[in-house]
Specification:
It is a single chain. It contains two helices and three strands, in the order βααββ. It is of the alpha+beta class. The chain has a three-stranded antiparallel sheet.
Length: 91
């Protein structure tokens, strides 16, 4: 597992991946916006308030970290959270 580019050594990297429906690269910014959903139709197939990714991003950034989303439509999504060394505790 590699750490996001440009990050200093240390800290905590958390990566979550799924093999779900994924999303197009152009839709990622919308998915990171509170209360926005990629499928806005009244007959959409998937539930949700559109808060999961925006809340996660805000929480990570409040700790001085970053959240990155990589996704491919029909293939799944990978979300990578990086927390700086100052936000971790050694064992």
């Amino acid at each position: 597992m590699s750490r996001p580019r440009g990050r200093r050594a240390g800290g905590l990297l958390l990566r979550v991946a799924d093999t779900g429906i994924g999303m197009a690269a152009d839709d990622i910014a919308q998915a990171l916006t509170p209360f926005k959903q990629i499928d806005n139709s009244l007959a959409r197939k998937y539930d949700g308030a559109g808060l999961g990714l925006p809340l996660a991003k805000n929480l990570v950034e409040l700790h001085g970290g970053t959240l990155e989303v990589m996704s491919e439509l029909g293939q799944g999504t990978t979300v990578t959270c990086w927390f700086p060394p100052a936000r971790t505790v050694s064992a």
